[in-house]
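This is your field. Have a critical look at the following sequence-structure pair:

***
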Amino acid sequence: MILLRQVQLYNPLPQGLQDVLVAGDQVVAIQDKIDPGSLLNSVHVIHGEGRWLVPGFIDTHLHITGGGGEGGPQTRTPEIMLTDLTTAGVTTVVGCLGTDGFTRTMGNLLAKAAALTQEGLTAYAWTGSYQVPPRTFTGSIEEDLLYLTPVIGVGEIAMADHRSSQPTVEEIKKLAASARVGGMLAGKAGVVNIHLGDIPGGLALLQQVCQETGIPLSQFLPTHQNRNTYIFEEAMAYGLAGGWMDFTTSTVPQSIEAGEIPAHQALAKALEVGVPIERLSFSSDAQGSLPNFDEKGQLVGLDVGKADSLLESIRSAVNLSGVPFHVALQTITSTPARLLKLTSKGSIGVGLAADLVMLQPETLDIDTVISRGQVMLENGTPIIGGTFEECKK
């Protein structure tokens, strides 16, 4: 059992000063003051005076097995490690494949998701990769969703990108229909995660699919919507029409110079025009390559996305763009939980998952991370690492 004393609670809305008691993998009590009584010797007490307690962060788009490869095999990025996530406050992940859906396989992805889950996080997976039709594990989107517990949807399917398989409207219709039916049968979100490239028109294609099929816009999660100014303008209209808006937080200076909208600025602008926070999210693209192509489409540079860019973008939203903390926080907690139908995640409440992050309010630095009721990081230091990390307990 863990007792967090006198924390300022955000669930993610502000709830004031509270004691929070954790037993097993759930929050079991939230009160002004909790007296553990005879249980005191068996309770790990964490003194949270002067700290903020928020839900564990949810990252819906990251390459847990590594990504990249656009510049040849030597540019394949490495797998993510447990502490890359816990030190970033991330307790729930949805791993994806990317451009390379050939040497990176669904078997690899599912095994890595299982490893992260065994190490203490909650890990899901998108089935497929850039290509259409997607290369699933069972050969069927519906069966992947039905029979593979970690599979939560389809993606990342590339559109409006020179690296995509150039899918047609009819192909996207069939893919979305399969994801929708599979999700319904499996009791899962069945969302289609879309990688948006630099070419205009991708979001209009999704709207056309929905208009012609009756499938709602909420069936799609297009990411990288802050990629450049003209994609972002399309995205604003898409969000106002009822679609999810997801902004990528990992970036490099060259991308910003080339016109990428920083995630914190994209959030502020979307809120300003009236897109509700309940449809706005951040994702990190961690371990994905951040390629820089020249005007001929040739790769001229490569960097790697980071999970800690999520919290850094929250800091920037608050400090640079004037977004209230509890509003910005929803982009990595309650909004992705709602999107993915993760009913026990993204909030702090009795009976909900004990995924918790304690922050220092002045800096928003991470003090403590609890995942599934287990302390992973305390006083800013990892105390549990992955199987091959030095801080393994």
